[in-house]
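Blackboard transcription, Thursday session:
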Amino acid sequence: GAGVSQSPSNKVTEKGKDVELRCDPISGHTALYWYRQSLGQGLEFLIYFQGNSAPDKSGLPSDRFSAERTGGSVSTLTIQRTQQEDSAVYLCASSLKSGSANTEAFFGQGTRLTVV
Amino acid sequence: AQSVSQHNHHVILSEAASLELGCNYSYGGTVNLFWYVQYPGQHLQLLLKYFSGDPLVKGIKGFEAEFIKSKFSFNLRKPSVQWSDTAEYFCAVKSGGSYIPTFGRGTSLIVHP
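(Written on the board underneath:)
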C-alpha cells in the first residue's frame, strides 16, 4: 500500500485479555517503530526494528508487552493480560534505513485501544 | 537520555495571527530535528525536518523552523495562521547516532475563523 497500515483501528477489550495489534509498513522501509500516545501525553517509544537486527525493546513498559516482525515486513504488537492503564492509541511508523540521510518516520493511523 | 520540551501545551489564535511554537531539547551533540502535525482524525505527518546546512528550514503549508544550536531550540513559526492549521503539533529529535526519534508532548493549536 501507499502508507503505513494498522489494524484494527479501534479495539475494546476486557481487562485481563490479550490483544494483538498489527502494522503493515511502507514497502521497502526497513525500520519500524511502535509508539504509544496517551491522552495529553506525547509519543512514548515502545520498540524499534531495523532489518534483521535484534529489536531495541528498551521502551516496552512491562513484560506484558512484546512485538515481533515477520519477514522484515509486518509487525505485531501483543499486550498480555491487559490493564486499564494500557488504554491509549498505539502508533506504528516506518522509515528507510535509519543510517541514511532521508530518515523521517511515516506514521499509520493508529489503533485506539480501550481496556474496560 | 534525550528529552524534548514543548512549553506551549495549548495555543488559541485568531486567523491571520502569527504563530511560534517552542521546542527545546537536551542533547548537545549532532541532532536531526522534526516537526510533525496531526490534523483532527488524521495520522501524524511531517511538516519539516532539519539534518544539516541552513538552520532556517522551510516546510509545507507556509511553516518554517529555525535551528538555534546555542539555545538547543527548534521553534516552529508561521506568519499568518489559517483555520485549517488547527491541529496537534509535535517536535521530535534524533540525536547522537540514535535511530529512535524522541517526541515532545505536543502542542494543541486552535485557530478561530
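Lecturer's comment: Chain B has a mean pLDDT of 93.
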